[in-house]
């Protein structure tokens, strides 16, 4: 029952405040038709990411976990002229669908999709001199969250915003004895953020069409 209500409210919010974007709708349709899992951010969450990137004045964005490029398109649409977004994806099929969706959205010229396991491609990015990034969105395999956070920090500057998705996991994050490797990844991430003197962070619980979850936000301060 609660889920139906959360979904109805998400629909109301989206219908009221999130203007339809044919390219984003087409990206969701193409992802579904290609059999990709329906685990992208929701429309109102995508818009929140876009607003955060705009509020921050981001010109250079890193995304870890592309899927079909839905959040990628939201974030790339936040960029000013000359801005760039690099997104990392390990599944060739996801990357193929995402590339087509990004091109269809007219963003192929500003988005680079790097295919491979992020922990392999991040060092390459660093070697190539990518970054510092103004905004980092972490939304890939959750057990690697601590490593992704460490990489985000490494590729950051004072003022960088790091957002990590799916950090509440239907409430399981509060269980210190959880054996779920994703929950453990999130708890380890939170411990790292808490202990890291170079960032200040919080996390927010959310409900909606994607269930009960949440996101963490960290600001790099030095
Ligand atoms: C939750 S989905 C991303 C959703 C997307 N950010 C959105 O909201 O539209 C997670 C993605 O991370 C990818 N992934 C999983 N492990 C990865 C890894 N080691 N390196 C890069 N991508 C990975 C998965 O294949 C999947 O496409
Ligand atoms: Mg997510």
UniProtKB/TrEMBL annotation:
Any one GO biological process: methylation
Q: Which UniProt keywords apply?
A: Methyltransferase, S-adenosyl-L-methionine, Transferase
Quote one Gene Ontology molecular function term: O-methyltransferase activity
Name of the protein in question: O-methyltransferase
> What InterPro entries does this protein's entry cite?
Cation-dep_OMT, SAM-dependent_MTases_sf, SAM_O-MeTrfase
């Amino acid at each position: 029952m609660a889920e139906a209500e959360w979904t109805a409210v998400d629909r109301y919010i989206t219908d009221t405040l999130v203007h339809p974007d044919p390219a984003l709708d087409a990206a969701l349709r193409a992802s579904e038709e290609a059999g990709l899992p329906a685990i992208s951010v929701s429309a109102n969450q995508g818009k929140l990411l876009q607003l955060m990137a705009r509020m921050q004045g981001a010109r250079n964005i890193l995304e870890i976990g592309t899927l079909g490029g839905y959040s990628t398109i939201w974030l790339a649409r936040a960029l000013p002229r000359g801005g760039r977004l690099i997104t990392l994806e390990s599944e060739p099929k996801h990357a193929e669908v995402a590339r087509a969706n990004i091109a269809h959205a007219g963003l192929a010229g500003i988005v680079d999709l790097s295919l491979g396991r992020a922990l392999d491609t991040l060092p390459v990015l660093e070697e190539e001199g990518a970054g510092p990034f103004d905004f980092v969105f972490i939304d890939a395999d959750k057990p690697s969250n601590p490593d992704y956070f460490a990489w985000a920090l490494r590729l950051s500057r004072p003022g960088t915003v790091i957002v990590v998705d799916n950090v509440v996991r239907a409430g399981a994050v509060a269980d210190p004895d959880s054996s779920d490797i994703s929950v453990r990844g999130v708890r380890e991430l939170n411990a790292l953020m808490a202990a890291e003197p170079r960032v200040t962070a919080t996390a927010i619980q959310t409900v909606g069409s994607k269930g009960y979850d949440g996101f963490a936000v960290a600001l790099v301060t030095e």
